[in-house]
Each structure stands twice: as C-alpha cells, then as structure tokens.
Design goal:
By secondary structure, the protein is of the alpha/beta class. The chain has two domains: 134 residues, Aspartate Aminotransferase, domain 1 (Alpha-Beta Complex); 264 residues, Aspartate Aminotransferase, domain 2. The chain has 13 helices and 15 strands. The strands form three sheets. The protein has a seven-stranded mixed sheet. It has a four-stranded mixed sheet with strand order 1-2-3-13. The chain has a four-stranded antiparallel sheet with strand order 11-12-15-14. Helix 3 packs parallel to helix 10. The radius of gyration is 21 Å and the shape is globular.
Length: 413
C-alpha cells in the first residue's frame, strides 16, 4: 500500500477530532482530505445512511432507479451556480473529471483541452493528463491524452508584481493567449478546465478577474468552461461553491469529496441542454449514484443548511486567516497566508531569498504540530505550503487551540 504523510492509525472519529491508536486525540484540520465538511460521523448523515441500508444497498442506475438519487438530483440545482440541473453520478473526483472530458468533447466535437500549471485533477489517466502540480503525478505514465495544453495560472504571490493583482492576471492571460496563438487555435478547443482555487498546487487563490477573463474568452470562442470544484465545493469557501464566491458561472462542474461526507460519490454537473448531447450508453457506471451515498449526500446538504455552516465557514475562515497572519509577522520563514473561507494556505520560504520555497521548515512544523495533536497536510510544488481545511463546524475556541499548537510548533522550528 502507498504510504502518505503521516499514516496515522485512527480508531474512531467524531466532529473535528480523531482518536489515535496511541490513545491521543488529534484535531483534524484537513477534514479527512476535504471530505467531512460537516465533521466526522455527523449524526444526521449516519442516520440517513443507516435508514437507506435497511432499504437498498445497491442499485445500478440506468437499470433500476432508487429514491435517494432522485432526491439528490432535486436538491443539487438549489445550491449549484447557474442553471445546472442534470448530473452524471460517479464515485470519485477523478471519475467526475473524466466525465467532463468526455462530455465536453462529445458536445463540441473538438479534441483540445486547456488546463493550467499547478493544477491537480486526479490520478486516473485522463485526469492525470490534465494535472500539472508535480511531475511525480505524471512520471512513468506516458503517453497521456493527446490535445491537452497548459497555460499559466494566476498566482499573485509568485507573480512579478505580487502586490498588483491586475498585473498578475495580465501575465497569466498573456500566457494563455500565447497558447491560443501559437499552439492550438480556439476553434479546436473543447474546454478549459480550472480549479477556482488550486488545492494540491498550493492553495493558490487567483484574483477574481482571472476567472472572469477565462469566462470571457470561453464565451468568445464557444469553449466550455469547466470548474473542478472537488476540493472547493459544499461550503469550503463560505458559499456552496467557489463559483459563487467569485461570481463566475462555469458551463460544467466536477464535484465530489464532501458531497456525501465520506461515502463514495461524485458528479458531473451541467445544464440539460448540454447534458442532452450524451446519448444513452455513451457513458455509464456500475456503482455511481449508490443509494446509501446519495442518501448521505441529501443529509449533508440539509445539515449544512440547518446548522448555518456556510456562515460559520466565512466567519471562522476570516478569524483563522487573521490569527495565522499574526504568526506570519512573528516568524520570518512564513512568506504568505492566503485563503477563502476555510480553505487556507501558509507558505514557507527562506528568509531573504525572494520567496524561495522552504520545504524543510514546513515538514518540521507539520511533524511538531502532529506531536502536539494537530493534523495538517502539505501542498505546493515542494511541499512547502501547509494547508488548513477544518470541518465547517469548527469553533473560535478550536481555532485558538489549533493556532496555539501551531505557534509552539513554529517556535520549536
């Protein structure tokens, strides 16, 4: 089996906490990789799943139909941006991204795809073809899908003018225009796929204008704009989706991770006029849209609403960012603190080296934090960014405790 950092043995989980086999309790400030936005084992989700287990565990959608998948298809249009009202349900974020590739090519009858440097879209072959966060995700897997091209993502902290968002956007759009002018004509492009906030790439928050410009370019050339919201969805940014946080509506979305609070589920989302291009049997699944997963997803949406988690994500996220920026002033190897809602990154640099990555410091802080009961996770090209993504139920007191642990870890480094 693959071993990831830190490979922590856990015997149970509840809320924001993990109980380790070592008898210690850990604060999970990663939401189990962005999956349990409502917290571990939320009683509403468990009850819904248990009730569905008594009715039907599996049903192959397209052959039989179950109530929970229909309920979920009714609820999603209430929270998605634009008029997205039809869905293909799968099992994972990678599978959803694969579906967007097939859908976009099927609709447009074009083959070209534009993705962005720093992107992470998954580990299956099509999704990995669109991934450019680290070479390790591509090494030894060639050949990838053809007609995939990369343009620069708008990364303010690493642009030539880090204090000028407009200049950052111009640099990125200029790079994209070079691709369109020199490498592939817009008339050959089926879709542009972008993470509205890059996750694995380092929790990079682009200026809003960047996404607006992508929307304009796609409209101009009849290119389908696709948002990969596997990480950013279901309240992570303080809105249901990052599309709403930025005020930019894509044509297609890939969603997953937190959709069902830990039960395997994902979806390709689009308007019915786009989805209608798919003929029956062009795309399919055996386990996608599982009855138990869909029941858990319906309960997840209801719980986020009833417990005011979107509002808490905004307020708690602002408080977390303010608290981390206090530490930034204290420790010179913290180069940047950035985020939207409860998706926050802290970038480590070598002091006096013009934003040069400092993965050694980040790794030490991760380990020292874990020893003190705080589970965090690295991101970025060199693993030099620490990401904070606690469940949306996190309280001010829990943030204070986590920041106190982090401060002790930073001081030890």
């Amino acid at each position: 089996m693959a071993q990831d950092w830190p490979n922590l043995p856990v015997v149970r989980a509840k809320g924001i906490y993990l109980d380790g086999l070592d008898g210690k309790r850990y604060m999970d400030f990663m939401s189990s990789f962005g999956v349990v936005n409502v917290g571990h084992n939320h009683p509403n989700v468990i009850a819904a799943a248990r009730e569905q287990l008594e009715k039907q565990v599996h049903g192959a959608v397209g052959v039989t139909l179950h109530e929970s998948v229909l309920r979920l298809a009714e609820k999603l249009p209430e929270i998605l941006p634009g008029a997205m009202d039809e869905f293909f349900f799968g099992n994972s974020g990678s599978e959803a991204v694969e579906g967007t590739i097939k859908l976009a090519r099927n609709i447009t009858k074009r083959s070209g795809i534009i993705a962005f440097t720093g992107s992470f879209h998954g580990r299956t072959l099509g999704a990995a073809s669109l991934t450019a966060s680290k070479a390790v995700y591509r090494t030894g897997l060639e050949p990838f899908l053809s007609s995939v091209y990369f343009a620069p993502y708008a990364d303010p902290y690493h642009s030539s003018h880090p204090d000028d968002p407009n200049q950052c956007v111009e640099e990125s759009i200029s790079g994209l225009q070079t691709v369109l002018d020199r490498i592939i004509a817009p008339s050959q492009i089926a879709m542009m796929i972008v993470e509205p906030i890059q996750g694995e790439g380092g929790y990079i928050v682009p200026p809003k204008e960047f996404l607006l410009r992508l929307r304009e370019i796609c409209d101009r050339y009849d290119i389908l704009l696709t948002f990969d919201e596997v990480w950013t969805g279901f309240g992570r940014t303080g809105e249901w989706f990052a599309a709403q946080s930025f005020g930019v509506t894509p044509d297609i979305m890939a969603i997953g991770k937190s959709i069902a609070s830990g039960f395997p589920l994902s979806a390709v989302c689009a308007r019915s006029d786009l989805m209608s291009h798919w003929e029956p049997t062009v795309h399919g699944t055996t386990f996608g849209g599982n009855p138990v997963s869909c029941a858990a997803a319906v309960a997840t949406i209801r719980t986020i609403r009833e417990e005011g988690m979107l509002d808490n994500a905004k307020k708690s996220g602002e408080y977390l960012i303010r608290s981390l920026r206090v530490l930034q002033k204290k420790y010179p190897f913290i180069g940047d603190v950035r985020g939207v809602g409860l998706m926050v990154g802290m970038e480590f640099v070598l002091p006096g080296k013009d934003r040069e990555a400092n993965p050694a410091a980040a790794k030490k802080v991760l380990n020292e934090s874990l020893l003190r009961g705080l589970l965090l996770y690295p991101a970025g090209l060199h693993g030099h960014v620490i990401r904070f993504a606690p469940p949306l139920i996190v309280t001010k007191e829990q943030i204070d405790e986590a920041v106190s642990i982090l401060n002790a870890a930073l001081a030890s480094v």
